[in-house]
Automatic annotation (TrEMBL):
This is C40 family peptidase. Residues 1-74, 151-188 are annotated as: Disordered. InterPro entries: NLP_P60_dom (IPR000064), Papain-like_cys_pep_sf (IPR038765), PG_Endopeptidase_C40 (IPR051794). Keywords: Hydrolase, Membrane, Protease, Thiol protease, Transmembrane, Transmembrane helix. It comes from the Bacteria. Residues 156-168 have a biased composition (Basic and acidic residues). Belongs to the peptidase C40 family. Pfam families: NLPC_P60 (PF00877). The chain crosses the membrane at residues 83-102. Residues 191-301 form the NlpC/P60 domain. Residues 37-74, 169-183 have a biased composition (Low complexity). It comes from Paramicrobacterium chengjingii. Residues 1-15 have a biased composition (Polar residues).
Amino acid sequence: MALSTPTESDPSLSPSERPVTRRERRAAQIKRSTDIATARPIASRPATRSASSASGRPSARTAPSSAAPAAQPSRWKRWRSTLVMMIVVPGLCAAFALPGTFAPASQAAPLFEHQDRTANAQELSVSTEASIASVSRDTYSATSQSELDAAAAEKAAAEAAKRAEEQAANRQSSSDSSGTDTSPVAPPTTPYSLSAVFNTAKQYIGTPYVYGGATPAGFDCSGFVMYVFGQYGISLPHGVSGQAAAGTRISVSQAQPGDLVIMSGHDGFYAGNGMILDAPKPGGHVSIRPIWTSSYYIVRI
């Protein structure tokens, strides 16, 4: 059975009875799609309104009428904050940068100047010939009580000698250029002899030593000898070498008390048995003591 496809519609048929062609069917579908797309927004609004009116409360997706105006101030606040930051932050950066930009060259240079710490650095060179010095430990010893007593006695004697020297300076008369003492000398009470001279010298034991002294207020070594012999009318110079030259040198075995013991820079009366009667040194006094050296000789006046 053969099927016949009409190529053209029969004009005698009514539109409802006439078969639809493929082209008309496609055009109808496109028109229907366009009508649905156009009518969908319009149709949704009544549905939404009807849904809200049916439930008695507004839909969750429907914003109130004041939502649009309320969004504008919040959006303006955000823009205002952004605008303030855009103006203030560059201004602050510019304010901190201005002092370095407009500072004088003498002040701005140190900010950017790089200091080379290696320049002018000190150098230390150690010679290979240097040797380590040997260090020895110091030793200490305690001061004995006898040394302390001797030091105290010497200090007291020095003070006493100083006072005696001051007193002697007030009493002592001036000497002539030859060195002899011009103070009055007591006349001899006994004839001259070595024993008489020695006995007279012993009367001044305890007299303090005074440098340059030639009176009973204070004697030095040659001043003591000069004063004693002066009482017997014998004038001697005030000096060890002059007194040694004024007498006769004899052997030590012939020495008698009253002879002179001559040393280097010192003299006194021989007291027998290796002893001497003299005015010793500052801080001492006229006394008899052992001769402490073998470097001496005897002179008889």
